Structures are given as C-alpha cells and as structure tokens.
Amino acid sequence: MADNFDIIAVSPHPDDAEIGCGGTLTQLAELGYRVGIIDLTDGEPTPFNDNPEIRIGESLQAAKILGVERILLDLPNRSLMDSLNARMTLAQVFRQTRPKIVIGMLGMTPQGSPDHYQSQLIFDAAIFYSRLSKWEHHFDNLPPWRIEHIYYYFTARELIPPDLPLQFIVDISKHFEIKKQALLAYKSQFRVHSSYNPPIIDWIEGMGRYFGSLINRKYGEVFYGTKVLNLNLFQYYLSSSK
C-alpha cells in the first residue's frame, strides 16, 4: 500500500534540508500536510562527532521539532556519487511515498561538500526513474509515480546563481525560531567552534534575514523552480490586502 506524503525534501546529509528549507517544512506540517525529509547519507564522520548513532538521534530530534518524518537511505557520505544504485534507491522511495511536491538541494557548493552537487544529480534522475513505466521489476513491483512539482532549496554558502530567475521566497518569520531550535538539536554539528567565524547559527540567521528583506519580511527561505508558476497574482494581492 502506498504511504502517501504531500511534500518531501531530499537532503545530502542530516541538517542540510533544515538549513535550506526547515522553516517552510515546519510551516507546511503545521498546516496539516504530511511532510518528510529523506537523508541520502548519515553525514558521518564529521570533525565533532565519533559516533554516527549520535547524528541519527539528533536528526530524529530535529524532525520531531519541525513536525516532519524522516527517512535515512544510508548511501555513503563523502563518497556520494550519482550512480545507478543511488538513483534507483531514491526513486524507489519516491514510488513508495508518492509525494506531490519534492524539494532538492541546488547546485554546486565549492566551499562545502561535493556530496551536495551529487545529491542534485541523484535527485533529478530519481524523479525521472520514479515515473518510468515497464520498470516495475526494478522497484519491487511498485507502480510508477509522476512528480509534477519540483523545487530546489539553497543554502547560501556561495553567491546566489545569476541564471536561475524562476525563484520565490517563503515568509518564515513566524517559524524561524522553530527552524533554529531544530538546527540546535544537532549538538555534534553546530557547537561554537573557533573555525566557524561567524558561528553557523549566526550565518543561518543572516541568510534568513537577507531573503526575508527581499519580500519585506523578517525571515525568508528562497526556492527555485523548474516551471513558471501558474498564479493569479491579482486575486492573491486583493485577497491578502483585505
């Protein structure tokens, strides 16, 4: 039986989805949607942690704070590659969970992990494989699942890509503190450390304030789409001004 989700965010490591779209995910969960995060890897080893089980426990606590569900695929951290196995593994979960909307990490992050860009390649291919017919035997006979609504979150480790105009920003002002608390659940990752200047939580707050300022709100999260959004803006503006 299909285990239907409304929205799923795909994260190369536990905490990436929280950084890029945690405020939006908790807002949607609060509205009653079924929201999930798929972690491609467990994110370990890292400089501040010697036990992968600690990071997994932190990720589950973060998910609880956000009000979302979490799935770990356990692909290899640091050597995550766009491979047929990785594509098929994620595509199978898409067929099982049948999400209406999926959100993946956007693009290369030269200052960050190479896993980030590989995760986008895996994400894009898995969406395609999820809908392929006559391949059910590769997916435990699960039927195809077509995902029409595909978006990307951005972690702002580098400059904003100049060639991606199809973007929108979600106001997370009322949910930023929940996002922050979810990130602080990762004690093994976000402790104060001399190599972080400014501290990571300060950077995340600065990122949220910057994107919020672009829509005249306190905090925001930016997303990029693959299609032009079909919105009746006049109706939206009139209704929101009442």
Task: Write structural notes for this entry.
It contains 7 helices and 7 strands; from the N terminus they run βαβαβαβαββααβα. It is of the alpha/beta class. The chain has a single domain (7-240), classed as LmbE-like (Rossmann fold, 3-Layer(aba) Sandwich). Strands 3-2-1-4-5-7-6 form a 7-stranded mixed beta sheet, sandwiched between helices. α4 (115-131) links the parallel β4 (101-105) and β5 (149-153). The chain is globular, with a radius of gyration of 18 Å.
Give the C-level CATH assignment.
Alpha Beta
Strand order of the largest sheet: 3-2-1-4-5-7-6
Uncertain segments are: none
Q: What structural category do the secondary elements indicate?
A: alpha/beta
| Overall pLDDT | 90
CATH architecture: 3-Layer(aba) Sandwich
Beta-strand proportion: 15-25%
- Helix count from the secondary structure assignment: 7
The CATH topology is given as: Rossmann fold
Oligomeric nature of the chains: single chain
Q: Summarize the helix and strand pattern as letters.
A: EHEHEHEHEEHHEH
Give the overall silhouette.
Answer: globular
Largest β sheet strand count, sense and barrel closure: 7 strands, mixed
Q: How much helix, percentage-wise, in residues? A: 25-40%
CATH superfamily: LmbE-like
Topology, number of strands: 7
How many separate domains? 1
